[in-house]
Amino acid sequence: MNFTKTTEQSSHYDSLETMSVIDLLRNINNEDKTVPLAVEKALPQIENLVGRVVEKLKLGGRLFYIGAGTSGRLGIVDASECPPTFGVPFNLVNGIIAGGDKAIRRAVENAEDNREQAWIDLENENISENDVVIGIAASGTTPYVIGGLEKCNEQNITTGCITCNDGSPLALTAQFPVVVVVGPEFVTGSSRMKAGTAQKLVLNMISTATMIQLGKVKGNKMVDMQLSNDKLVDRGVKMIMSEIPVDYEKAAELLKEFRSVRKAVENYNK
Question: Active-site residue numbers?
Answer without folding.
Answer: 81, 112
